[in-house]
Amino acid sequence: MNARFGPFEVDADRRQLLKHGTEVHLTPKAFDLLGLLIAEAPRVVRKDELHRRLWADTFVADATLVGLIKELRRALDDRDAKTPIIRTAHGVGYAFAGELQRAIAPLPAVSRWIVAGSRRIPLREGENAIGRDPASTVQLDAAGVSRRHARIVVAGDARLEDLGSKNGTMVNDKLVSAPCPLHDGDRIQIGPVVVIYHASTSGESTETIVREAT
Question: CA geometry: angle at 111 spanning 106 and 112, to 5°?
């Protein structure tokens, strides 16, 4: 999980804490502790849970945890007791109390399109007609292509259906006799014309975690 707060950024994949793009040194356990507190924010994580998750099956003194908290506060320049980044719940545990943005797993946006010669034709949700009809989403003005030849229906996935065309529809050299799912790179033959179907996923969301009142 990646997160941003104030001038800081946590890159979990690279195990780096950055301030204004410059790496701030943390020991491995201190980095693990920071990531754990951010992941659980704004919940107070009890000391026994921190010990269990940071040092599974190993006993360490409570002073070791306190030392890591001090290391984090130094690295984060966390000196304002009124608005702490790492909040102490006395006798209980610790919480990440700063305002942060962290990446969350989104439902990826899917872009779908047809490549016909030099044209890149985007597909929309619902029905996308293919044929000689000028109103078609994928308009193919060629002999052997029916006016309403086929359609691609986008509804979660994308499915190709022949519409009773005279010269048939094929996907990867197989005749389409019933609606069939499409996959990125599929070769679609509309009568004598070949087009290529493409799909890709992209997108990222963030959520803002507001500082917990103390």
Answer: 145
Residue type, 127: E
- Tens of pLDDT, residue by residue, the chain (214 residues): 588 999 999 988 789 999 988 999 999 999 999 999 998 999 999 999 999 999 987 888 999 999 999 999 999 999 998 999 999 999 999 999 988 775 545 545 678 999 999 899 999 889 999 999 999 999 999 999 999 999 999 987 899 999 999 999 999 999 999 999 999 999 999 999 999 999 987 544 444 444 444 4
Closest by CA to 93, choosing from 42, 29, 27, 17, is: 42
Question: CA 160 to CA 148: how far, in whole Å?
Answer: 13
Pair 176, 170: CB distance under 8 Å: yes
